[in-house]
Design goal:
mainly alpha; about 0% strand; rod-shaped; microtubule binding; Sperm-associated antigen 8-like; Sperm-assoc_Ag8
Amino acid sequence: MRTTSSLDNTGSTSDIHKNGHRDILTTDLTSRFHGVSTQKSAFTSPRGTGVREKGLRAELLKKDLIKSISEQVHAQLTPQPPAPELSSVTKTDYKVKGFRGVRPSPSTDRDYRTDEAITFWKENFEKIQ
């Protein structure tokens, strides 16, 4: 009897390729796979060169184009709100049918251009002296 005979009868080959052989790498059934291999630990992601790949003008043009297109799409997708119906006190009180605005006649005949101004001091200067 071979030592590895228990490994030979583990099931179909598709199951072996899918799940692998049990107990080949470790005998601890509760251990977890760490997700790090020698290939992964040796690989470092490539770093940038530190030099601009595109010019500043091209970058600004691209940003401006993206901004204008996004504004156009936003304007197309969001409908304009309906114009509010404005109603003021003047409209409700004085623009009613049948209302006639008539100026009252002056109670005294005065002309502000020629008459002397009436002030507190002009009226009370005798009381002060």
